Amino acid sequence: MEQFYIDNKKFNFRIKRSKNFEKIIKINSSPRNYELEIIHKSIPASINKAIKTTEKPVLLIDSNIYKIYGSKILKRNVLIYKFNAKESNKNLIECIKFTNFLEKNNINKSSTVIVIGGGIVQDVGAFSCSIYKRGIKWIYFPTTLLSMTDSCIGGKTALNYRNIKNLYALFSSPHHVILNTQFLSTLSKKDILSGLGESLKLSIIGGDRSLKTFSSNIDKAIALDRESISKIIFNSILIKKSVIEKDEFEINERKSLNYGHSLGNAIEPMSKFYIPHGTAITLGLLVENKIAVTSFGLSKGSDRLILDLAKKLILPRFIKKMSELNFSSINKYLINDKKTKGKILKISVPTKIGRISFCKLTLDNTSIKTIKNSVKLLINEL
Question: Which of 124, 263, 339, 355 is deepest in the core (most CB within 10 A)?
Answer without folding.
Answer: 263
